[in-house]
């Protein structure tokens, strides 16, 4: 594959992986927890380095996943204690991220691990960091990692689709049916954490947050069926990656930033022109209703 094809494939995998998980966050009104986890995992990455004194990917992965789950647990704990959910997210997000920044600047400042790299990422370097087995170049590591995480997420969703669907739409009904709502919650948070961590070093937190929220929000405006919403969110993620890459190529700007911008443009167009929930369709429906009332 060509250099550009690897970048597009990586961006598409991020769009599909994060977009599918984002659908459930949108339905559960927890979209901004994606922003929180995408930043607080910095603490896990730094802590893993300080404990193991190694930059090996598996150490970073485990540390980030643990802190991602800790973030979800603390937010849930504060929310259950009476703190408003948005305030709970803000408190946990800023506190854990700040601790991560302090540890990074105090104890790991000489290591190739900095806040700007973590937040922005650099998808342009992906094709050069390859996986080799027995001297055979198998392509970028990021593609294999993201592909594996996507496969894991799809298997979990396929196995627990009904439970996740009911718990997302009607938690009270799920409890009445005997579905372990909290287990489903932390299962989703675990999927969110590994998806965030897998995407983190490749594209940075900004694109991760964009792909976790925007494709799902766009799909939400286009359909009322969860299965279709999942497919549409994946399609939007892929279109954002492809469109963003060529926009960056033509304009000589950040690839990740372009992908996030194209995702925002697709959402804006959907917000205006969606057949059922779009601004234009609502305006036409309101005028039609007003015309019918005046006629009667």
Automatic annotation (TrEMBL):
Any one biological process term the GO annotation gives: response to zinc ion
Pfam families: ABC-3
Record flagged with keyword Transport: yes
Record-linked InterPro entries: ABC_BtuC-like, ABC_TroCD
Subcellular locations according to the entry: Cell membrane
GO cellular component terms, semicolon-separated: ATP-binding cassette (ABC) transporter complex
Primary localization class, coarse: membrane
Keywords: Cell membrane, Membrane, Transmembrane, Transmembrane helix, Transport
Membrane-traversing stretches: 6-27, 32-51, 57-75, 87-108, 142-161, 173-197, 203-222, 229-248, 260-280
Similarity section: Belongs to the ABC-3 integral membrane protein family.
Name the UniProt record assigns to this protein: Metal ABC transporter permease
């Amino acid at each position: 594959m060509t250099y550009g094809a690897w970048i597009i494939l990586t961006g598409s995998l991020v769009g599909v992986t994060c977009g599918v998980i984002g659908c459930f966050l949108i339905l559960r009104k927890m979209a901004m927890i994606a922003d929180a986890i995408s930043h607080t995992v910095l603490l896990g990455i730094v802590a893993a380095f300080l404990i193991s004194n190694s930059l090996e990917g598996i150490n970073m992965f485990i540390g980030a996943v643990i802190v991602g789950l800790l973030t979800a647990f603390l937010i849930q704990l504060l929310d259950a204690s009476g703190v408003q959910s948005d305030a709970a997210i803000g408190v946990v997000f800023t506190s854990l991220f700040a601790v991560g920044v302090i540890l990074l600047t105090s104890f790991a400042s000489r290591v190739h691990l900095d806040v700007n790299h973590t937040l922005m990422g650099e998808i342009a370097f992906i094709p050069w960091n390859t996986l080799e087995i027995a001297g055979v170049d198998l392509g970028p590591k990021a593609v294999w990692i993201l592909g594996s995480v996507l496969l894991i997420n799809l298997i979990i969703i396929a196995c627990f689709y009904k439970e996740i669907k009911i718990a997302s739409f009607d938690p009270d009904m799920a409890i009445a049916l005997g579905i372990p709502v909290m287990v489903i919650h932390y299962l989703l948070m675990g999927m969110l954490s590994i998806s965030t961590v897998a995407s983190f070093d490749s594209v940075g937190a900004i694109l991760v947050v964009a792909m976790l929220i925007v494709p799902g929000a766009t799909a939400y405006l286009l359909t009322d069926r969860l299965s279709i919403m999942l497919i549409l969110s994946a399609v939007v993620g892929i279109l954002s990656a492809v469109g963003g890459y060529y926009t960056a190529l033509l304009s000589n700007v950040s690839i990740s930033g372009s992908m996030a911008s194209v995702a925002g443009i697709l959402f804006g167009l959907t917000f205006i022109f969606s057949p059922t929930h779009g601004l234009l369709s609502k305006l036409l429906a309101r005028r039609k209703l007003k015309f019918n009332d005046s006629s009667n």
